[in-house]
Amino acid sequence: MRNIANAQLVVSDAINLIHGKNGSGKTTILEALYMIARGRSFRGARAAPVIKSGEKELHLFSEFHAGEITHKIGIRKTTSETEIRLDGQNIKRLSQVAAAIPLQIITPQTYQILDRGPEFRRKFIEWGVFHVEHLYSELLRRYLRALSQRNAALKTNQVMARAWDKELTELGEQINSRRVAYLNLLTTYFEEELIALLGDLQLQVNWKRGWQEDISFAEALEQSFQKDCEKRYTTYGPHRADLEFKVDNIPISQFASRGQQKLVITALSLAQMRVTIQQTGKKPVMLIDDLAAELDRDNRTIVFDRLREMGSQVFLTTTDADLLEGQADKMFHVEHGAVL
Ligand SMILES: Nc1ncnc2c1ncn2[C@@H]1O[C@H](COP(=O)(O)OP(=O)(O)OP(=O)(O)O)[C@@H](O)[C@H]1O
Ligand SMILES: [Mg+2]
After folding, report:
1. Per-residue model confidence as pLDDT tens digits over 247-278
2. How far apart are alpha carbons 219 and 197 in whole angstroms?
3. What does CATH list as the number for 1-102+285-340?
4. Top-tier CATH class for 114-281
5. How far apart are CA 12 and CA 15, in angstroms?
6. pTM (two decimals)
């Protein structure tokens, strides 16, 4: 994978620190861990840049202990296909692996969740709902299929578009109520984490479900049918939902510093981990790329104390091995793609 020809890591179930110079291969190790849990890289969707130059494929193998259960996960990736084996079986859907390993990640790009399109924030929420409600991903898949059929009809045969409304509204209402239930669980923890990390920032968080507040989804579809026909797509619905973050009525991406934005996402991640633990008993794995970027010493301490309290397994990278002052349980030194 990338500059790492071959590496085997026996890791701690608590805090693992990966250190080394720029370009040594630290982020690549996190990328491998992420790929084991989610089947793809967090640095772009294409496989080709991840496979080591001159090689045709990459292989990953991991043993993952969840309580008494040990999962074995193997991945083989070429530029055109991905093969995943979970406990000796070939699997098609990645969600089977993802369900076994709840994994969170914080990178130097994480703050972008706040200033990019709503789909990034929806993804974040959806990841959380998925871990507490396994039926959710199936609901969402069915909803998106009905939505794309409706949108296709709006382009070709508008009368037919209405035939999808019943299915769309039933699934859409269910999706929304699961999201709302999840957000209710998340909010209490999120507020606690926010106070710890960003005490004086008066953050307003607004959930936008994707259609008007005072009417049902069916009514929203009814009212907007003419508009949908003109625009040739479905204007309202859970596919347009967003979680809005504002300070003094200004979008947070235009108000808060980059470090503050990163802390908001860190608080959200920690809250999400706490909900997962509370609801499923599974302990999420946390990946933190370049810990020193933006988080000052006090905030690093808060984040660490919290991760220790949760008993979470953590992998973090840094160019500065002294950063944690002996707090790591296991250290890995990376040099030109070799893990020492
Ligand atoms: N497909 C590839 N084949 C071979 N080498 C690659 C490939 N893709 C990237 N590299 C190299 O792999 C190295 C590892 O990069 P990585 O991002 O893991 O470094 P890092 O230790 O996280 O650095 P930094 O401290 O700058 O974040 C880089 O030197 C890069 O040039
Ligand atoms: Mg890096």
Report:
1. 999 999 999 998 899 999 999 999 999 999 99
2. 41
3. 3.40.50.300
4. mainly alpha
5. 6
6. 0.90
